Amino acid sequence: MKKLEVFDPAMCCSTGVCGVDVDPVLAQFAADLKWVEEHGVEVARHNLGQEPQAFAANPAVLKEMEAGMDRLPVVTVDGHIVSTGMYPSRQQLVQKLGIVLKTEEKPRIKISAAGGCCDPKSGCC
Q1: For a surface tag, which of 17, 32, 103, 124 has the fewest beta carbons within 10 Å of its beta carbon?
Q2: Exposed e or buried b for every residue in 70-86, given b needs 16+ CB within 10 A?
Q3: Per-residue pLDDT tens over the stretch 97-122
């Protein structure tokens, strides 16, 4: 079983999804982590403000923090750093974890009237 660890900057709660002004990136990432767990990946999330010992116990994470606190969050897979300074998207997590998507989970590509592909959010379709 793969293990995904997230070393978050200090936040008000373990996920950062609390209070009145919820960051949509954090909310989406929390949902993506739950989805990843449902695909057989062990997930551990560490908040610098609540679990500094997890950071101190990981030399690679400490090295990233020495380079600057903007390197957080640090995301590791099986102990290897795969992302720093940002929360990976679900698609990036799929790639980094080697998750095989079921047909119904695969993103659908729309074809525009002109015959080319376009992003559904672009308004061209």
Answers
A1: 103
A2: ebbbbbbbeeebbbbee
A3: 999 887 666 666 555 555 555 555 55
Q: Measured between alpha carbons, how far is residue 1 from residues 34, 37, 78, 81, 97 in Å?
A: 15, 11, 9, 17, 10
Tokens of 110: 């729309």
Taking the model in full, what pTM does it have?
0.79
From CA 52, how far away is CA 8, in angstroms rounded?
10
Say how many CA atoms lie within 13 Å of 39 toward its Cβ: 19
| Amino acid occupying residue 52 | P
Element at 104 (helix H, strand E): none
